[in-house]
Amino acid sequence: MKTCDGVQRRLVAGEKLADSERKHLEGCEDCQSVLAESSRLGAQGALVRAATQPADAELRQVRESLQPRLRPASRVLRWALASVAMAAGLVVGSLVLGGRPDAGLEQRVSERLVTLLDDLAPLVGASNDEVAQVSEAQAQAAGLLDDGTGIVDDEDESWPDSYQLIGEALDNSWL
Amino acid sequence: MDGAEATVNMVSRAQLEERREAFQQLLDQEFPALLGFAKRMMGQEADAHDLLQDALLQAYQALPWFRAESGLKHWVLRILIHEGIKKARRRRLFSTVASWFKGGAPARAAASFGLFPADTPEQQAGDRQQAAWLLGALDRLSARQRAVIVLRYLEGMSIEEIARAMGTGPGTVKTHLVRAVRALKSLRPGDRARQSGGAA
Q: How many Cα atoms occupy the beta-carbon half-sphere of A145 within 13 Å?
């Protein structure tokens, strides 16, 4: 069975078989059927290619409906991105000033926010200036967490519930 | 991804303009090939149009984050494949749920290209019917299996090219391919008849 697996992987990849594998192929119906199917698919693939060549009218129609969409995102969307970045900075900032979590949670919150901003940015087609703003907000968020504001984590056992909730929400892929 | 990496990905306005220009040139040269690929990937014209438009729009908006070392065409193709797998997966789920209510098999892809689904050996005689059969059978595979079959046998890509395009290893591609080939073989009318004969 192990030989069948190796032989079939080589067959579908179009790789050369070793002598022992060739011998196995000659006596194995299962491997022969995979070889036959692979060859059939090669031939039928060419037929499908021919059947699915787009016509000129179709090309024109798809291209024409796509072209107007290929432009930088609107101002509204750009503002949405900037607002999300600012809100994220504020949330992290206020939570950190209200108390310091354990290092792991703090790191996770920071990482998820950065990931969120990175994910959002391409969706709204941000301009370079906005990307700079986002990076600045990210740096600010990271700075607030790591700027040595004097809040010592191991002395402060009281952890605000709201922060814990947000941490849990982030852990549950809320973002 | 950390903040530093996000900053590294930033590009100047001039670079971005250059990329947008290169993107338009790519569309001028490769649009027929990309649309053809989307059609084979989705098997239905309307879905293929949606896929191509969504993937190209996504690529265009992500141009500031494009890393030039991979090549624009390769990068766009990667987005197209990933988006195609996502859409095929959603469609498969939807058609499975729909078939529970309708009590029938999911609609065949080939019909949308003006081809006819072929279930019997007689119908398979013609080239178009063979192509139709394959397009219909691809709909029965998982999204990932469908993608590797399309890339290998319809696009003629090597295992290494497929692995790069799908962001996975060659070993994984071969595993998916063997499973997909075996699944397609079991869907062939002769094989199915043998199976049901054996079961009886």
A: 22
Q: Do B159 and A13 touch (CB under 8 A)?
A: yes
Q: Side-chain half-sphere of B116: how many Cα atoms within 13 Å?
A: 10
Quick one: CA torsion of B177, B183, B188, B194, rounded to 10 degrees?
130
The pTM (predicted TM-score) of the whole model is 0.64
B142 conformational bin, left if phi > 0, alpha if psi -120 to 50, beta if neither: beta
B46 near A CB under 8 A: no
CA A124 to centroid of chain Cα atoms: 16
Cβ-based neighbour number of residue B144 at 10 Å: 18
Q: Which residues of A touch B159 (CB under 8 A)?
A: 13
CB contact under 8 A, B53 and A62: yes
- Torsion, Cα B141 B118 A49 B191, to 10 degrees, reads 50
SS3 A4: helix
Hey, how many other C-beta atoms are within 10 angstroms of the C-beta on B35? 24
Q: Residue B95 pLDDT > 70, yes or no? A: yes
In this complex, do A128 and B11 lie within 8 Å of one another by their Cβ atoms? yes
Nearest CA to CA, how far is B16 from chain A (Å)? 9
C-alpha atoms less than 13 angstroms from C-alpha of B86 in its C-beta half-sphere: 11
Alpha carbon distance A36, B181 (integer Å): 10
Q: Do B185 and A134 touch (CB under 8 A)?
A: no
Helix axes A19-27, A29-51, angle to 10 degrees: 90
Residue B19 confidence (pLDDT) above 80: yes
3-state secondary structure of B140: coil
Q: Spell out, as residue ranges, where chain A has pLDDT lower than 70.
A: 1-2, 72-78, 98-103, 105-106, 109-110, 114, 117-175
Q: Which helix (H) or strand (E) holds B50?
A: helix B45-61
pLDDT tens digits, one per residue of B144-180: 999 999 999 999 999 999 999 998 999 999 999 999 9
Amino acid code (one letter) for B124: Q
